[in-house]
């Protein structure tokens, strides 16, 4: 998000004086902390160790239950939320926003400050929807424009008597297509030289749409959404943190209030599942490190050594992409080593492949939340005047053209405390989920506890690493 944030912030600075803390989505500088910064790293690790010991003493049998556990919504509320009229209205809203954003990107003004698309895609959609699905469940499935168009086309074909049986989705593909699409978006966001360019965004939206609808036609809507649609899988995984969920009962979708953390006990052994979650984590780690002064100095050295600006851009993008892939590989490798160590302790009777992936999902969320907090709070306010004049023609559809964003929502220190608390809570939750899975599959409880030594080390590594990356910005 670094390049997108800087491009959007620079555009906003053309009309407003943006303070340093709002110049990007990161911290913007830590000042006047009451204790040395390194104590936060030690404190975060200590909280995890104490939590681990408490789990070993107090949590000796599985308590979270299965992902489908929960209590149904009251009948009247289910009737409203599950009504066809509401579903159609939400799908229509999703498609309308999709068309508005794409046409603004393709035909609207080229100046970022005047175009709706960059702010909507990188702030409202990418960051805002991430927070929303964690708070209230997977609302993305209701407003997803690619799903809505697929459902509409399928419904129209049925009415015309046209029926086509989709191909069976090859199990060996796993979620690699979804990984590839999400990697493409993240590469545009973090690696491409000008991610806020509206015309490039229009091309990216068109390409993603073409691939998604092609996969839907070939393999069917549900199979492709579960395995091939990068955004659908991303938001579905994050929505498992929410207390509000759904389950299949008698062939119908039923809304439920879930037991806390129960939806994170899923086991995913599909090919590419670890790579997908590592992409969720590694992309944020890359974004943080790539904004450090050390890395920026390396990039400056590269540009200084190449006379041709276009060639320098290509080399910088290649180097940044290599660092992005390295970050993803480091995350996946560290997790793989921890699981391998746990498997050796558990013995051949327990298959721990994919068992602990759910524990990484809350970490992925708190990484994103902590890293993009100020970006969402500050830059997100600019979406309102852009929606009021989506094509930069002087309109004021919502009466918000003169809206003045509040740029000092949180001080740098307040932001830091919020980020640290979020990171620690997320990793404690991850420990709880991993420990519950261990005691459910490994006996006796003492051996299950020993399998989690490596997971504890992993969580401490992730926590300290996350705080360190935040402190760099």
Write up what this structure looks like:
The chain is mostly helical and 473 residues long. It has one domain. The chain contains 19 helices and three strands. Strands 1-3-2 form a three-stranded antiparallel beta sheet, with helices on one face. Strand 2 and strand 3 form a beta hairpin. The longest helix is centred in the C-terminal third of the chain and has 38 residues, at 309-346. Mean pLDDT is 86; it is low at 13-31.
Would you spell out the secondary-structure blueprint of this structure?
Blueprint: H1 2-13, H2 37-58, E1 70-72, H3 75-81, H4 84-107, H5 116-136, H6 140-143, H7 145-159, H8 176-190, H9 198-219, H10 221-227, H11 230-239, E2 244-249, E3 252-258, H12 273-290, H13 293-305, H14 309-346, H15 357-379, H16 383-388, H17 412-441, H18 445-451, H19 453-471
What's the total count of β strands? 3
What are the low-pLDDT stretches, counting only 5+ consecutive residues below 50?
13-31
The value of Rg in angstroms is: 23 Å
Strands of the widest sheet, in order across it, are: 1-3-2
Strand proportion: under 5%
Major sheet details? 3 strands, antiparallel
Helical percentage: 55-70%
Overall structural class, as computed from helix and strand content, comes to mainly alpha
Number of structural units classed as domains: 1
Topology pattern, helix = H, strand = E: HHEHHHHHHHHHEEHHHHHHHH
Quick check: average pLDDT?
86
Shape: globular
Termini separation comes to 13 Å
Q: Counting H and I runs of at least 4 residues, what is the number of helices?
A: 19
